[in-house]
Amino acid sequence: MTRQGGYNLPEGVNAVRFSSKAVTRVAAGRVIGLSNEKKSAEQISKVSCSNCSVRALCLPAGLTAQDIDRLEQITRKKTVIKAGDQLFRAGDKFTSLYAIRSGSFKSVVIAADGSAQVTHFALPGELLGLDAYSTQAHPSYAEALENSSVCELPFAQLETLAQQVPGLQKQIFNLFSEELRQEKDVVMLLGKRSAEARLAALLINISERYTRRGYSATEFNLTMPRIDIANYLGLTAETVSRLISRFQKQELIKVQGRAITLLDKPGLATLAGVSCSD
């Protein structure tokens, strides 16, 4: 159970900033959103780039207020995706990028033999759909791991605007570069490392990404099921469960449901063979 903003967040609820007016505690100890989905959608639609909690990590990074206003003209469509629903499917025509406002997603590629491979876990402030640019078709599908919200960025309009706003064009290049870096990180993660090093590296990676978003570096929820973690790391679910138990015994982490605390982040980094922030 993670505590945030005066409320206890139950298992499976990500570290999204909740306001006291936006949540209600019920007797069962669950935290629910506004009174109905319609109100939730309306609430999200009122959030603009200028007051979005993850603006510093998304396309508006480094843009002037005037440029952000111009960007908002093409990003007015905000969408709520329920847990388990797909944002787009493999093979869909590439028309837009999607900026994650809240929640999280997994990207999955379907191999020729019909097997599924998890290739990425996306967090708030990150973009989905960048890998479809070259072929103009999505090579994977994106599924919400929890109730999530995104901003749709029609790429044709975004490209036109980028030609007029140098700062936006630079940010788009940065995002494509980040996509390539993440692919390299995955190759390194799944290379010659041991199973325990892979899991430790994933935990450090998620921790570092949450840190950049202003959240706790040591306390967060793993919204992805262990079977998805195993698939991503090239391990079995049983191996992941065994490693998590071992990490707890070694006092590297503490786990309660999907809530995880990194008790010894430097120790995990050493195990993973990577560097980490304090």
TrEMBL record:
Protein name (record): Fumarate/nitrate reduction transcriptional regulator Fnr
Species of origin: Microbulbifer harenosus
Domain HTH crp-type, chain residue ranges per copy: 193-266
This protein's record includes keyword Transferase: no
Start and end residues of each Cyclic nucleotide-binding domain: 59-129
NCBIfam families: PRK11161.1 (NF008365)
Key word Transcription present: yes
Keywords: DNA-binding, Transcription, Transcription regulation
CDD domains: CAP_ED, HTH_CRP
PROSITE patterns: CNMP_BINDING_3, HTH_CRP_2
